[in-house]
Amino acid sequence: MIKEEEIIEIGKFQKTHALKGELNALLDVGAEYLEDGNPLVIPVDGLFVPFYAESVRPKGTTSFLVKLKGVDDVEEATAFVNKPIYGLRKSLAEYMEMEEGDLLDDDLIGFRVEDVNAGYLGTVDRIDDSTINTLLVVDGDKGEIFIPLIDDFIESIDEGAETIIVDVPEDLIKLND
Questions:
Q1: Structure confidence at residue 99 (pLDDT)
Q2: Which of 9, 42, 149, 150 shows the smallest number of beta carbons within 10 Å?
Q3: Is 52 in contact with 42 (CB distance < 8 Å)?
Q4: Domain(s) of CATH 2.30.30.240: residues in the chain
C-alpha cells in the first residue's frame, strides 16, 4: 500500500479527451518520466493507486494527453477528471538525478523560516509553483510572506532543525503590512 509520505503531487487531470480514455493532464514532469515506466499515483476511494501510462502525447509545455493502461473509454476516464496526480518520491528523486539526502521543495513544508536581519518570519505553509518563480509561502504573525525560492535568498537549510535561514530584502518582508 502506498502511503502519503511516499508521494509528491506532480499534476492534475483536467478533462477527458476524445472517446478512447485519454485524459488531458497538467504535469510538473516531462513525458519521459511516464515513458520510463514510472507510475502516476491517483487517489481512488481513499487509497493511493498506481496507474501506468499506455501513451503520452505533449499538448503544450506542461499539458499532456495521457492514456492510462486499463482505462479504455470516456466513461472510465471521467472518474479521473479533476483528480490530483502524484509521483513516488523515490522515482522523482531518480528522475531528477538527486543525490542521497537532497531535499525536494515539498520537503520544506513545516520548516521554520528565519531572516538574518528580521529574525523569525514563520513556518513554510506551502510551496507555490503556479508561476515561473517558485515561492515559499511563509505563514507568520503578520500573515503570509512570499519568498522566492532562489539561491540568492537562501542562506542555509538545516534539515535536522527544520529551519531555513534567509536573507531577503526588508521591503519583501513588509509587502503585506
A1: 66
A2: 150
A3: no
A4: 105-176
Backbone φ, ψ for residue 118 (5° rounding): -90, -15
What's the pLDDT at 141? 85
Residues 30-66: b if buried by 16+ CB within 10 A, e if exposed: eeebbeeebbbbbeeeeebeebebeebeeeeeeebeb
Please, which pLDDT band fits residue 177 given cuts at 50, 70 and 90? Answer: low
Q: Could you give the CA distance from residue 156 to residue 167 in angstroms, rounded to a whole number? A: 10
Q: Would you mind telling me the total number of residues written for the chain in this entry?
A: 177
Identify which of 38, 29, 91, 47 has the alpha carbon closest to the alpha carbon of residue 68. Answer: 38
Task: Read off the pLDDT band of 75 (50, 70, 90).
Answer: very high
Count CB neighbours of 10 within 10 A: 22
105-176 topology per CATH? SH3 type barrels. (2.30.30)
- Range 11-19 average pLDDT: 92
